[in-house]
Amino acid sequence: MSQEDPQPDMSPLEGATKEATPDIKAPLLSSDSKEASSAAAMSSSHSPRLKYMSLGVLVLQTTSLVLTMRYSRTLKEDGPRYLASSAVVSAEVLKILACTLLVFREHNLNVRALHRLLKEEIVNKPMETMKLAIPAGIYTLQNNLLYVALSNLDAATYQVTYQLKILTTALFSVSMLGRRLGFYQWLSLLILMAGVALVQWPTESVDGPEQKPLSAGSQLAGLMAVLAACVSSGFAGVYFEKILKETKQSVWVRNIQLGLFSFVFGLIGMLVYDGQKVRESGMFQGYNSITYTVVVLQAVGGLVVAAVIKYADNILKGFATSVSIIMSTLISYFLLEDFNPTSVFFLGAMLVIAATFLYSYERKPASGAVKV
User: Fold this and answer.
1) % of the chain exceeding 90 in pLDDT
2) 26 near 19, Cβ under 8 Å?
3) Residue 54 CA neighbour count, 13 Å, CB half
4) pTM over 0.90, yes/no
5) Are 28 and 72 in contact (CB under 8 A)?
6) In the chain, where does DSSP find H-type helix?
7) What pLDDT, on the 0 to 100 scale, is given for residue 215?
8) Mean of pLDDT values over 165-169
9) Where does residue 175 rank: exposed (0-12), middle (13-18), buried (19+ CB within 10 A)?
10) Are residues 182 and 366 in contact, defined by beta-carbon separation less than 8 angstroms?
11) Alpha helices per DSSP H over 107-154
């Protein structure tokens, strides 16, 4: 989120299709205005049951990735904690395998056709493949930043603050793709910034007897990490969308290319920053069932969202984001017990939810007249 969004987030599928990854990365599904219009028409023709099933999947994917990642980073166990850099590399390997299987399925399980396609599109077109190096590097950085953020922020605060990627994506869309935003979209971005500012507003912590409040330095590190992830998510998502619009390649093939670069960058990062730990205890030190769940959710979460997103319109996507924020807040408070909501937080969260709805509502009618 790989990355994705959560989403996480996180690869183009996580960052562009997930409005929470990760993440989330909607550019994958909007190659041009005509395709966006036809997708909207398809969405409106699907049964309400299918739409709400899609909504459920979006909420489940978005919420589960954030909460399991947060839980895995705060779980106290004997022995070393798993390396975030190792989890990022593992997720990239799974993404490559998943996308390869999807391409294999598209070609009727023909191994020869798969080999010919991958050789033609990846090996024989080095310049086209090299274009993916930039977003791959940024997504790899983003995925590592999300682990840092969730190691230092509770899930609810992270979830709300990460919605700033809507702002960064909009700004990069205007500057790089020449899009024009309507008045209500700009207004929603201002509301979004105000909401996130309130969520991050310093308050007197009222911690239970068994809770250990986060230090100011830890919270600042988490905030800086999530803000950097928002910027990287916005830029990489729009850059990837720009590449998709310039070529006719399959989205899954592009994600294989992206995953290959992300794997290399992630491996280099792991060896540079955690090389000593890897040599001492191995790449998979500290892995447990929760860790494997996080890796799988981060790897295939974006693919799942990409598969169901065509059944949900922008209003449902905004609703999914809102429900996910509410669920993260409730679970953080009642189960993880690492979060004490305040009236200021609730006000900020409501502003962020309202801004998400407002921006999503205006995006569809504006998209047809947006292109320059």
Assistant:
1) 38
2) yes
3) 24
4) no
5) no
6) 12-15, 33-45, 48-74, 84-106, 111-118, 126-130, 133-152, 155-161, 165-177, 183-199, 216-246, 251-281, 289-308, 314-331, 343-367
7) 65
8) 90
9) exposed
10) yes
11) 111-118, 126-130, 133-152
